[in-house]
Amino acid sequence: xxxxKLEKVVKRYGKVETIHGVDLDIKHGEFVVFxxxxxxxxxxxxxxxxxxxxxxxxxxxxxxxxxxxxQPSKREIAMVFQSYALYPHMTVLENMSFGLEVTxxxxxxxxxxxxxxxxxxxxxxxxxRKPKELSGGQRQRVAxxxxxxxQPEIFLFDEPLSNLDAELRVxxxxxxxxxxxxxxxxxxxxxxxxxxxxxxxxxxVVLRDGNIEQVGTPLELYHQxxxxxxxxxxxSPKMNFLPVTVLSANSEQxxxxxxxxxxxxxxxxxxxxxxxxxxxxxxxxxxFFSGSEADISLTVDVDVVEQLGGTTYVYSDxxxxxxxxxxxxxxxxxxxxxxxxxxxxxxxxxFTADDRRLEVALSTPxxxxxxx
Amino acid sequence: xxxxxxxxxxxxFIALLLLIAFFLFFPVYWALSSAFKxxxxxxxLEPTMFPSDFYLGHFLTAISEGNLLLQLxxxxxxxxxxxxxxxxxxxxxxxxxxxxxxxAKKPLMLLILSAQMFPFGxxxxxIYPMLQAVNLLDTKLGLTISYIVFALPxxxxxxxxxxxxxxxxxxxxxxxxxxxxxxIFYRIVMPISFPAFITVTLxxxxxxxxxxxxxxxxxxxxENRTVGPGLLLRYINENNSDWGGAMAAxxxxxxxxxxxxxxxxxxxxxxxxxxAVK
Amino acid sequence: xxxxxxxDQGLKKxxxxxxxxxxxxxxxxxxxxxxxxxxxxxxxxxxVDAMSMSFFQFTIYDMEPIFIGFDNFVxxxxxxxxxxxxxxTAIFVVGTTVLTMTLGLAWALLMHQDFxxxxxxxTMTLLPWILPSTVSAFVWAWMLNGxxxxxxxxxxxxxxxxxxxxxxxxxxxxxMAIILTRTWISIPLFMSFFLAGLQSMDFQQIEAARxxxxxxxxIVRRLIIPHLGPVFLVTGALGMIGNLQQFDIIYALTGGGPxxxxxxxxxxxxxxxxxxxxxxxxxxxxxxxVFTLMPLVVFYLRSLFKED
Lengths: 372, 278, 308
Hints:
The complex is a heterotrimer.
Chain A: E1 4-13, E2 16-26, E3 31-35, H1 42-50, E4 57-62, E5 65-66, E6 77-80, H2 92-102, H3 107-120, H4 136-148, E7 154-158, H5 166-183, E8 186-191, H6 194-200, E9 203-208, E10 211-216, H7 218-223, H8 228-233, E11 240-249, E12 254-257, E13 263-266, E14 278-283, E15 289-290, E16 296-301, E17 304-307, E18 312-318, E19 321-327, E20 338-343, E21 349-351
Parallel strand pairs in A: 3-8, 3-9, 6-7, 7-8
Antiparallel strand pairs in A: 1-2, 1-4, 4-5, 9-10, 11-12, 11-14, 12-13, 14-21, 15-20, 16-20, 17-18, 18-19
Helix pairs in contact in A: 2-3, 2-4, 3-4
Chain B: H1 7-35, H2 39-42, H3 57-64, H4 68-99, H5 105-113, H6 120-133, H7 140-146, H8 148-164, H9 168-176, H10 181-192, H11 194-210, H12 213-218, H13 227-235, H14 243-276
Chain C: H1 22-52, E1 56-57, E2 66-67, H2 71-77, H3 80-112, H4 118-125, H5 127-130, H6 133-143, H7 150-157, H8 171-199, H9 203-211, H10 216-245, H11 248-253, H12 265-274, H13 279-305
Antiparallel strand pairs in C: 1-2
Helix pairs in contact in C: 3-8, 3-10, 8-10, 10-13, 12-13
């Protein structure tokens, strides 16, 4: 079994610390995605699991072994790199068999594994080609093929789709998901693209500045982000944040004042906030309704309208904060004209000034929604 | 790059082109044409542009008398083996400097590169007795080893800067695949870097091939003599009047390498410049 | 080899020797050994040994080197010959470097222009460089021959001189000859450096300037030369280092003469060491030589490592 465990893992380059004591558990068979903006440490973390990067402090476990100082080849891992890192002087066949060959596997085993991998990835016709004769998508497949033949316990992916065009990216995303279903191995996947994270992961690890911000299933992160960073990072377009002021707060309810004087009453644990505190009210663009049928209505001037056909995005601002609204596509919207929209209180999140999300009040019966 | 619409611009461009081209190429032409002139035609006060009758006598004597072919063989042997040795050492050291991190790296690299500060003539003062002590004076092996002096520092830097731009992911992929450092080096890194290896070999070859100082000092016997000193001793003496022979022998001595470079020149120009200047 | 058994997992902290990259570092040192050994034996030791010889009297009459402190330095500093050869070196180095860089740049500019037959010119440019030094020296010695040389024939024919110039037996003529020959040999390499610099230039910049009405000369002066500035500095240093080291051409062409008019430091050291067999004196002049080279090498290395 190939559980992966990180224990207080720290990475320092000289005096600069880039990973600040990360703890993480990954169960066998899970598809885990590390996601975060560039420089958050997601690739470093993956490379430490791979054994390509030294761990300054803390330990890495794979299965029952403490592998912190093991060479990559001993860890039963295989990795797909961002640039694919195919050996340019070897054919596809040689690329795929290299790993088995250098570790001294018998010829017939190599042959059998390679033909199986090329069947799964439909590489049959390409085996005699050199990498430079392949398209981006084909190179990607070979890079994956090279990992499959080795039958590792754990697959590691370092931003594998970032060099592909949009269409191919979607296609490969699906193929990798299928592969995971087929093989059932542990897969750890690094990306800066939250769509890839949401669509592929069993479990998402959101990182920022060398710390884990939140670990959870895609829907957990979507519905219960622990802070504004995660809330803003997961979901597209980004969640809107409106400034509000606390009027009163107790363990079950927080009453806040919106910029236009409307009072909102949210069922949250407000014991940590005081009257007069400035909070952020988070609502996702897709949770707005055109018109005033929901709990709270607001009117803004339309700034920019983007019509995508199926949906329409309206950009405006409220009290200096940019706001994005997902509106019905059949709505006639004119730039500069006022527009009324509304939202339900049950879809709102409250974030404190020090970037925590207020927990849903204990007595609240609603579970699925964030702040009901 | 230049806009050559007006006739003045065109004329200026062509004039400059012809002027420098004349300076660069005329000497070669002149040497070649002189080699085909008989002594009568050669030693007249108003020289002829073209040889009047293609006289081959100089070539025949250049080969039949003296040891030109033996010297050429010695030169090619010492230059080629020292160039290959040099390129091998430079590849290993350059790879170490380019792809690994260790505390002594920078000082060692600076030490090797600062060798350009050590004049070859000064080093020879100590190399001479050193070779004498191990009985390598006046041997092709001794000369081959001494030629390391010329090209090793810059060759190491050239390989270093080539390896530096090889993607790390390639090496890491091989590592994850289970290849040892040695296997990564000769199965992945060197096959990819073959063009750089050839460039460095040619570069080092040119140093030893052009050398006069070391070959003149470290080789004393006729049997081990190389082309440079060989030509010098044969044609430059008190009554140095055999210019036709000197030109013919020069042409023969230069021909094999000119041929090799004609084949490889394209890659070579790019390679040398990428190493020495960023 | 770095395995930790399951019982004591979590207890062992990574120590330096057992750390992940220790094997890599061992390998890195290992593959450095051959080159370092060759360097130490063939370059570094001889250098230190030769330098230390400058404190000894060691001639063909001495069985063993005799320590004499700074006496050799006192001798050479009051020796007009040594100082003269330093000046001769300076003239040769500066003259050759300036001429090489000027012609090298001009040739690179010409070879950067797209015209029919350029490829042939570019290929042929390498010729002077790949000829053995002795051959180049022969070629020029014959061209500059005082009696039958084609250069004299051309000068006479054009009416520039009335009588043949004895290039190689004249002080100034000999210096001109070695500068010219060395320049001829060096142009190919310098053209390559400048050409690489030109090829890295943004072509749109030139086109924009042309739309602004700039002519050919303005473009060279205001765009190309500033762009090549760093290349000039580095190739200039490199060229001077190479010319300071130059021995072969000068020895083959003039042997340092006539009298001592082309005896540069390299020739002087060679003559002291291998004709007079005065190793102490040769080494002392070598020290002077090293100190002349040092600032150039330091400058060159610094520009190479600036970005690292």
